[in-house]
Amino acid sequence: MAEIEVVDCGPATTIQDAGRYGLQRYGVGPAGAMDRDALTLANLLVGNDPDEAAIEFAGLGGRFRVKEGVVRIALAGADAPLSVDGEPVAAQTSVTLRAGDAFSIGPARNGMYAMLGIAGGLDVAPMLGSRSLHRRAAIGGLDGKALQAGDILPLRKAAPDGDDLTLPDTFEPARGPIRVLRGPQDDHFSEAGLATFFDSSYTLSRQADRMGYRLNGPVIAHSDGFNIISDGIVTGAIQVPGSGEPIVLMADRQTTGGYPKIATIISADLPRFAQLRPGDSVRFQGVTREEAVTAAREAARLRADLRGRLIPAGSMDLTSERLLALNLVGGMVDARADFFQEENA
Amino acid sequence: MTVTDPAFLPCGDAALSVEFGRVVDPRLNALALDLDAALTAAPPEGLLETVPTYRALLVHFDPLITDHEEIERAVRDLLGDLETSTKTPRRWRVPVVYGGEYGVDLEDLAKAHGLTPDEVVTRHSAGVYTVAMLGFTPGFCYLAGLDPSLATPRRTDPREVTPAGTIAIGGDQANIASIEAPSGWNLIGRTPLRNFMPAREPAFLIDAGDEVVFEAIAEDAWAALDEAAAAGEWIAEEIAREDTHG
Questions:
Q1: CATH number 3.40.630.10 given to B7-84
Q2: B56: which chain A residues are within 8 Å (Cβ-Cβ)?
Q3: Domain extents in chain B
Q4: CATH tag, A178-293
Q5: Which of A74, A106, A275, B159 has the most CB atoms in a 10 Å sphere around its CB?
Q6: What residues in B contact A228, CB-CB < 8 Å?
Q7: C-beta separation of A68 from A74 below 8 A
Q8: How far is CA A223 from the centre of its chain?
């Protein structure tokens, strides 16, 4: 049995997995990690299934202590400093801790949402098919709530298997404008309104959380009023209320809504959109249905390929002069084996 | 407008809205609910979930398996047979304590219509409602079928918090609220029914397309029913359609 204690953490530190599906007809949105790619990487680095529940940090970090057992963790997503007993841990690299070890995640320096993967997964009960916290429904997470000081997080495994892993190259999402598919209510906007949306730069306001991101920028003209009879919405939907400034609906969104939606961010670009910080600027670029579906498939392929790109964490040193020295006495595979024996001794 | 000619509107790369119209009309809602039932009975490959609303059905799909075109084709194949669907909706009897602290707007609402509170209760509980959709909060039912004489504009000053189980009127819509939430609707009563209770199996009772009738109960019946509901009892009864005035 392994346990982690929350010493303290930011107010929006929550347990999230890939989301809760099948209940939108009852008014329960999916919740789930804001950055799906970060969830995948954090989990793969600790040997988990890619959709396992992880701890999500919203800009601020937290301090933790291993209470019991052997615990392997890895941080991915927003660039936030991870340290163990004050010693920094390399980015995108797992680290194995023992009872009594303290670790902390600092505020994000770049991006907003960091995911902490934990080997074996958290031993909290899934509710209605997911461990993701859904605040409004008070389900998932730890007893339906965000994490707070004093919480004890039991793990499903007493100790991890295998080696610590690292992603040696960068896992950089695409650059450039955020790609969107027009609709479902693009015809509620004038031609000028559509042109404003696609030709302007918008700034993420401070009103940005797991429910939605409110953008500031040129006002988008409606052609036909700004109320519609409520219909279903998806994550990434860009609704334009009467103010004319867009609001992008995020993981904790409602399931239905009554504002016209000019376009929808494609799922492949949602992770990097979610990582914007208040004050960051963003532009939107239209794509076709075919391009949107192709991008989703490409993003899934990149996530699936990630596992094969991870290498044992210690082997990073082998690329330096150490590797040269070891190569003098034997083949690389043997050298690597020797190296780990030495490290474990 | 014909049944076979809805609009197919893309909602990103993983959903398609099948839009039957743009107004509130029971016939459009019936189409969305019938298509929902048909897709649930025979889901095309890659379908993830559906969300029926007043005038449209949102179809979530897995873009790794299917795409907009295939979903549209599957929906079109089903549209032709919708009118022949003979399914019978479930009908629920929902107990309500009207007025007083349970429905703080009942008297004002009655006064606004030149009615007595009892007349409002009689008209509200005489109706057979169709659950047009769920949304806003988990388990919140939007009901169609309100007696037009009870239609009342939403309040100009919405309340930050209204109780779980609130029975209210907003415009020409009625509702059953499930959990505590802000609301601008006029509160006329409260039910001990929990339409969303995560620890209960099933977590949700009333679904879109079901029918609802309300039964006025005395205030002193509240405590026992509320306790039973909190313990996981359904409280709302599923009843045969012949048993009612509908």
A1: no
A2: 231-232
A3: 7-84, 91-239
A4: 2.40.100.10
A5: A74
A6: 22
A7: no
A8: 36
- Quick: pLDDT tens for B35-87: 999 999 999 999 999 999 999 999 999 999 999 999 999 999 999 878 655 56
Best B9, B13, B131 residue to mutate vs chain A (most A CBs within 10 Å): B13
Which structure tokens are listed for A300?
């899934």
Q: CA angle, A303 as apex, A63 and A13 as ends, to 5°?
A: 20
Q: Do B58 and A236 touch (CB under 8 A)?
A: no
Structure tokens at B205: 């009772």
d(CA B51, CA A290) in angstroms, rounded, equals 24
What is the helix (H) or strand (E) element at residue A118, kind and residue range? strand A110-118
Per CATH, which fold does B91-239 belong to?
Cyclophilin (2.40.100)
Nearest CB among B9, B55, B134 relative to A184 is that of B9
The most distant pair of C-alpha atoms in chain B lies apart, rounded to whole Å, by: 58
The domains of chain A are located at: 3-165, 178-293
Q: What is the dihedral of CA A22, A47, A105, A175, to 10 degrees?
A: -70
How does DSSP classify residue B178? -
Per-residue tokens: B66: 């299917």
B11 with A261: Cβ contact below 8 A: yes
Q: What is the pLDDT of residues A247-300, one digit of tens each?
A: 999 999 999 988 899 999 999 999 999 999 999 999 999 999 999 999 999 999
